[in-house]
Write a structure and sequence with these properties.
alpha+beta; Beta-Lactamase; 6-stranded antiparallel β-sheet; 6 strands; 47% helix; 17% strand; CCB4; CCB2/CCB4
């Protein structure tokens, strides 16, 4: 279920105040038996003020963008970590995943490496296994992240059946040439450039840890 825009009341307040003021001035003019000079001047100022409020409200409707509507992702919250990982890799993955969940719009994430799932955390999708589709394969092959800003618009979204079915946005961040970090958001167009840079930095730390400890284990 989509959450309502929290700023809608603020954006509409000048429109409501201006419209209400204009109506009250009109009623006052109609009911006045005798119009004095001071009342006429007050009415003119009141009409101007109401018009300015209405104009301000209309400008706010255009200037202030609506925040992306978020949804409650479908699924159970959980934390699954491959039991045979070295302790230092477990610690690294646990730390990285909690940082991403707390500090970005990420609500579900998966780490796939060397052909298997090492981590699932957040709102878990229906499928446990990851079968890399064309989008994930492209991210790994080109060593560049792929950001699907509104997942429902992409036909290739069917490959992300290991994420909640109503995931709104996805980032596929390569972990070197051996894996990928997949993040799901609960709102479209919600990752900022700063988020993307931060995710890239965390992914580099994960890749460095896994390439070192999994090879030497």
């Amino acid at each position: 279920m989509a959450k309502p825009d929290e700023n809608v009341v603020l954006r509409r307040l000048p429109l409501v105040a201006g419209g209400l003021g204009g109506v009250l001035f009109f009623v006052n003019r109609v009911l006045s038996v005798e119009l004095t000079d001071s009342q006429a001047r007050s009415d003119v100022l009141g009409v101007i003020l109401s018009a300015l409020l209405i104009l301000t409200g209309l400008l706010w409707q255009q200037v202030q963008p609506k925040a992306p509507e978020s949804v409650e992702l479908i699924g159970e919250e959980g934390f699954e970590l491959a039991p045979d990982l070295p302790e230092r890799s477990k610690t690294e993955l646990a730390w990285a995943s909690v940082m991403l969940l707390r500090n970005t719009v990420t609500r579900s994430l998966v780490v796939w490496y060397d052909g298997r799932v090492l981590l699932r955390r957040g709102i878990l999708g229906p499928e446990r296994e990851v079968k890399p589709g064309a989008i994930v394969q492209r991210a790994i092959a080109q060593q560049k992240p792929v950001y699907l800003v509104a997942l429902k618009l992409y036909p290739g979204r069917i490959e992300f059946d290991y994420l909640p079915e109503n995931t709104q946005g996805v980032i596929c961040q390569p972990l070197g040439s051996r894996g990928v970090l997949i993040l799901g958001a609960n709102a479209p167009r919600s990752y900022t450039k700063q988020d993307e840079r931060w995710i890239e930095g965390i992914a580099e730390k994960i890749a460095e840890n896994l390439s070192h400890y999994l090879e030497s284990d």
